[in-house]
User: What shape does this take?
Amino acid sequence: MAKPSPFGKESRVKILKQHFAASKVTAGTAWQFIYRELLWIDGSTGLAHLYESDKAQRGRSKWFDRTIRFTELLCKGFGGITKEELKSRIDRLFRACLQELIEIKAKARGAPKLPVELSDEEPDAAEEEPADYVPDAELVEEFASLLVQRAAMPEAEALSLARDLVAKARYFFTVERKRQNVLGEGFEDLLQLLVLQVARVPAKRVIIRKRADTLPGFHGTTTRDRVEAPDMAIVGRKNTDMLASIKWSLRHDRQKQLSDELDCYVDLLSQKRFPRYILVTNEYDPGRLVNADGLARRGQRIDCIYHINLDLLLRVLEDHPKARDLKPLIKAGRLRSLEEFLSDLKQAYGS
Assistant: This one.
């Protein structure tokens, strides 16, 4: 039998439970717990990741300045720490999963060590990189040849740059792609833990990533090719009380996914009333939040969007022209905070 993946659900949940047990997490501090586990430092800016990396570079747009503000506010929110201290206090889930992977591979190779990209220590120039991240020699030669031919680069310089490019590419495809899985599914795992432990919703009522047609009250028929699975559902004996879509960000593809999900649930609905349908997100683009709020299918729409830190959202976006569009949503109770999410669930479904 194959061993569970260090990045898989079993490993993620075990790590999150360990971290939760060592913390004092309340509805009011849950945002800190989420950011400690899932937020990371963007290697291209040295700042906390807020927006798409290519659009948040210095001189590209105002998102770089907002990212600086976001990072500074986080440092204050975590007790007045420095940016260097912030790096060591966030990205804990991914680091722990990666450490498990390295420990597994290191058993036959010597002492385990985090890749330099994630380490808080300064790299030792005399020390070799871990074997997993040594670039492919043939690919380095091909890259170097292209640089000499097309960029007229001196051979020695081309070879040095080619090594760097291939090393970065290898790191991305072997490690950083794992981050997206940890981020997306880890966000769901983490919210489930908070719903159980902070909102005190009974475990038997919380369903994660099960097809909608297996949930109570959704036994209708659909002509769709795919039956969607809500990221989280809260169910009773005969009906489903709440459906939740959990999305760290709301890029165009994820907004389409929201629309597809809602369409599918409307098709399958067999209970009398459509359940409360919510979105939990860390999106900082106000236009995307407004667009998500406006999604509707055959009379059904999102009831509420919960943001990880609503106060931080508004402070980061103080110079964004569309930030004012969020105020009506907040006033109407359609855009709320994570603290309110956990409080709402505790009041409605808590034991």
Remarks:
- Residues 121-135 have pLDDT under 50 and may be disordered.
- The beta strands are 41-42, 47-48, 206-208, 232-235, 240-247, 276-281, 296-297, 300-301, 304-307, 335-337.
